[in-house]
Amino acid sequence: MNLPPVVTPQEWDAARQALLVKEKELTRARDALAAQRRRMPRMAVDKDYLFDGPSGPASLRDMFDGRRQLIVYRFFFQPDVDGWPDRGCPGCSMLADQVGHLAHLNARDTTLVFVSRAPQDAIARLKKEMGWDVPWYTITDSFDADFGVDEWHGTNAFLRDSDGIFRTYFVDNRGDEAMGGTWAYLDITAFGRQEEWEDSPDGYPQTPPYAWWHRHDEYQGQGATSPRTGE
């Protein structure tokens, strides 16, 4: 193994400062890309999609759970996937392990859900066994094919505006690697992090940074109906 050299603390700090310049450039570029994402055109969702949920049939609108934004991750858990019926897709399972506390997303008027082709009894068993709390629905129609997730995992973002539902963004392949944390999810939504420093179109919801941040059990009245699951 060809390891880098051992240096003095001063040399190490100088090397770190040089990389920090590039890291800051990457952060600013990521922020600029998110600003472009918030200006993406919207695609109207005209079909009435139907899912099975833990409480019975549910529409796409139902999955918003009263919030304005919805993030839907296509988790591969079905008979033709390795590990069935005891396990879900290894990559999808790793992503599920990375998901942060849902109360923070809920506080930004955003709901995260998983969808699969597995029946609800199998989903409930797997959730309990793996300790996952994300609301999880069963696909019953062409939702996966229509939104690019019939053959591979992917994350779709939707916005509920008045009586309409709109697809606002989509990531898959390595784009899903970053998913799991609150900021990564918010950065792919139509409204972003909703903080005043962001470059967003006029009229977008924004509040001061830090001011809305709370411990996950202290979000009462800020969009988190349940402190853990959002249900």
UniProtKB/TrEMBL annotation:
Specify residue ranges for compositional bias: Polar residues.
Answer: 222-231
Q: Where is this region: Disordered?
A: 196-231
Report the SUPFAM superfamilies cross-referenced here: Thioredoxin-like
Which Pfam families does UniProt cross-reference here?
A: DUF899 (PF05988)
> Domain of life of the organism in this record?
Bacteria
UniProt-recorded name of the protein:
Putative dithiol-disulfide oxidoreductase (DUF899 family)
Biological source species = Mycolicibacterium moriokaense
